[in-house]
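Possible race condition, two jobs.
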Amino acid sequence: KRCCEGGSSTALAGCPQVVQADADLKQFCLQNAQHDPLLTGVSLSTNPFRPQKVCSFL
């Protein structure tokens, strides 16, 4: 418990809870990378932020 009470990142790196959380986060990221739009991009047809088409009647 004492190692987890330190304030520096090097002190936290040896804590079992931090090491386990790091491993869990890496595993989650690797498992879900194919569904992450920041990594795979967003198709133009499903992108809610695409520029709207302009209609003009002349």
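Job #2 (started ~2 s after job #1):
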Amino acid sequence: MGSGVVLYSHVVDAFAAEALACLHAITFARDMGFRKVVVEGDSRMIIVKVQKGIENLI
């Protein structure tokens, strides 16, 4: 397993911060070779957009 930290100084709001965290988590999982990933969050908009993006890839 692993972990990581990314520091952004120009994130404008909580939505952008959570979207970036989700992006980095998915990218990290892909780079580690995971085939299935469970992402949990409290922003429904981000979850819906991620799910739509995944459906477009299938």
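Helices lie at 14-31, 44-57.
Logs attached separately.
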